[in-house]
Amino acid sequence: MPKLTVENVGEFEVESGKRLVLALTDNAHVDQLHACGGAGRCTTCRVEFIEGEPNQMTVAEKTTLEARELSGCRLSCQILCDHDMTVRVISRLEGSGRADTGNRPKDEIEPQPVEWVDK
Questions:
Q1: Residue among 34, 25, 72 at smallest CA distance from 53
Q2: Domains of the chain (ranges, CATH numbers)
């Protein structure tokens, strides 16, 4: 099982292939935002990688990050936990002014990744 380390929270074992956004909310109990429900459109699920950043990303993630001119961060809803990683959660419910974190993302990445591109 991959090990997920969340800065200032702790270390957690997660099921291989689990979406990072779900590992953060379910395993680490972090109030990670995911306003679009994990569809890779809103960028509220941003994280920074301290170690173990995947070297590929879905087309949806790449397109969204480029459109918003964001760098140095990744979308946790578009990443699978398939290796050990250490992250810093950027977008949390606390202090956001939002009523809730968003609809629970599905277990599978949305939209389904049909193509992977180098980041």
A1: 72
A2: 3-94 (3.10.20.30)
